[in-house]
User: What shape does this take?
Amino acid sequence: MSRLLPVFGAAWLLSMTIGCAATPANSPLRGTGDLGIVIERASGSVQVVDTTRRTRLASIAGLGDLSHASAVYSRDGRYAYVFGRDGGLSKVDLLAGRIAHRIVQGGNSIGGAISQDGRLVVAQNYEPGGIKAFDADTLELLADIPSTYGTEGKRSKVVGLADLPGNRFAYALFDAGEIWVVDLADPRKPGITRFKDIGLQPYDGLVTPDGRYYLAGLFGEDGVAMIDLWRPELGTRRILDGYGRGEEKLPVYKMPHLRGWAVAGRNAYLPAIGRHEVLVVDTDTWQEVRRIAVKGQPVFVMARPDGRQVWVNFAFPDNSWVQVIDTLSGSISTSLEPGKAVLHLEFTPRGENVWISSRDDHRVAIYDTASFALLGQLPADSPSGIFFAARAARIGF
Amino acid sequence: MESPLLARATVLLAVLAGSPVHAREPVEPRRSEIVRMVRHDCGSCHGLTLQGGLGPALTPAALAGRPLDSLVSTILLGRPGTAMPGWARFLDESEARWVVTRLAEGFPREVAQGERAR
Assistant: This one.
């Protein structure tokens, strides 16, 4: 017995060490399919959350300025790449509950994307304007593509970066009114295709879930620029042209955000700019189907994964509201007030729940999407973006 | 309902009338509300740290040499042709003037949640 004790002791110590290092929840093995992160914008931290047990697993500080932050996931769903406002790119290990790697890659950043094969992480920057591609393992810089336009060597702010099939990426140049499609099959030799004169002030973009169409929403005029990526030789096409019908725009106190979540069934649901409406466009014909009056300037217009509902939040000062559109009837099913300053929402992978961040009430509210019942709330410090690991498997996320 | 044009003219008059640079400090809790609004709602374009984003930086260095009156009217009326809307619905002229004055000096930090009684 006395000879066995040291062995047991060593084994116990070893298991404790591994247990502590491996997961914040002290469970030795688990997947990440039901995990995610919540950005705490004012404190530069993220929470790792479990969407099955609706709990916080870890809180991770030291991610810099997260006042505008977004995240993409490694293809194994273990790591979140968090892009901060200050150009920080942090690789967060959800299982270990810590930052695995972190660099500061730009001066003023807005977000990023990950390649189809998961090997490249790409950041889109306001300052200096352009994109940069990094090795997803080491965060080594592989490509630096300035968004230079015009004749004076100016660089545009980059918005709307989306991953495309074939390790390509599409993005829009806010100041230049251009869309660029970059082929990073060999990141050391990027192939750039420029689409010029796509419209004034593209503010964000999205790729449809099938990877075929890239859409850039325009702020400076009423309409959306669209490229059929299967037939790029056709150039850009304007859809929803002149949707404002010449009426004076209402003030926009926060820019809307676009991503592949806009598509529900065969229709895309897009925020109007300066109108309190959601515009519905048929993705076969690209004709407007209908427009739906809502409470305010839409910011996120997000389809539940099955496309049966579309949830909408709003810019200041209507940002305590969330409205749910019934996609069959095109009417509002319900209006909720989840808290003050709702900044973001995220569906669980199959859409039975939605998590909604309330910046000024410092909490995340979790709703059942069928009954609209409030299932629970988690405290968080000025929460903004919520990003679940299931994004790892989706084109355009 | 006031027409937007009339509202604009009224605000513009108020701006012009208030030109002696005098920014009365708003009293609590309004002061904290304004600080939070600037940091978070203005910050959605200008950045929480006001270093700029889609909108330009609002740091003392970036604002150096800019006439305060024109900044006040930008806040209240917006800048046509850009993404900057007018905020006259949410800030009165003296509040906008206080915001501009404080921006030029270095805007107050928000009291972080951890420092508040929970």
Notes: Chain B touches chain A at residues 4, 36, 40-41, 43-45, 47-49, 51-54, 78, 83, 85-86, 89-90, 110, 112-114 (CB under 8 Å). The domain at 4-14+28-110 of chain B is CATH 1.10.760.10 (Cytochrome Bc1 Complex; Chain D, domain 2). The longest helix of chain B spans residues 30-46. The two ends of chain B are 41 Å apart (CA to CA).
